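Data deposition worksheet. Section B asks for the primary sequence of the deposited chain exactly as it was used as input, without tags or linkers unless they were present during the calculation. Section C holds the resulting structure in token form. Section D is free text for depositor observations; keep each observation to a single sentence. Incomplete worksheets are returned to the depositor.
Section A, Depositor: J.P.
Section B:
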Amino acid sequence: MNIKITGSGSYIPTVTVKNKDFSNHVFLNEDGSNFGLTNDIITEKFYGITGIQERKYAADDLTTSEIALIAAEKAIADAKIDPETLDYIIFAHNFGDVNKGAIQSDMLPSLASRVKHKLRIQNPKCIAYDMLFGCPGWVEGVIQAQAYIKAGMAKKCLVIGAETLSRVVDPHDRDSMIYADGAGATIIEATEDEGGILAHETATYTYDEAHFLFFGKSFNKDHDPNVRYIKMHGRKIYEFALSNVPKAMKECLDKSGVEISQLKKILIHQANEKMDEAIIQRFYKLYDQKMPEGIMPMSIHELGNSSVATVPTLFDLLIKGKIKDHSLNKGDVILFASVGSGMNINAITYKM
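Section C:
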């Protein structure tokens, strides 16, 4: 028995926000003072570091669970399964359903339960639950699905990663330009086909790192101090990721028994192009090799950072031939990797 992704789907929101659309924003420092550079210079520097040219926001009438439903329906159709046969629905997100303009998140009932309800699944043995694990949530959901299948507790699982980060950003914080909305979903099944999940690795660092990402006040001191927004210590996250993610990736690949020369693609969380490149360069350096050209497909340039949705969306676009100059074939070995709030790191070695 092998455990494979048998279907995938994604939802790319319809609202495109380009870097130039931030030209009228009032960006401030953390203490509320003016930032001191024009927005043209701010966005130019931002693009040079992150690689983000534009990002996608969900339409005002859609919530996280609703865009997740669209991705889930596509994955179910792609896998050609009856949703009544699902044993688990694992929904990775971080902020719940946040209505446009709202200041409160809605997670009751759970988003996984909402998706199950909207899929009209009657089977009470289909267990639906949410996972709060930062950006690596979808990868960890796949690892949990594998564990259920290995333990004989499941045969088919739906794992979703979806987020509407545009609803929880401080418009006066330059970091708000990083974040985006999106949804990706996959069906994980026991199968007799060759390949599937070969190895995995997960770690949580909290001793000094727990609050590298956090909820904080707006940089605009006139805003309600009780309203909180996603905040991050960007430099600390960058240094943490470069120190720890390559090691976790190596441990995962080594456990699989696959030689680094056999690795075809690395699907890494779309957080920051420069950071992702540096992580993969360091990963290859651990093997005394240079990073090969074409190893790292990217979607961040047009889609931004949609947290838990980035990796499953990238996989779906890649498998459907929608990432220029990149493709996957049966038998190819790929590596999923992610890092995010917690601070959490994980990776999966996977054979197509």
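Section D:
DSSP finds eight helices and 13 strands in the chain.
Helices lie at 39-50, 64-79, 111-118, 137-150, 234-256, 273-285, 300-303, 310-319.
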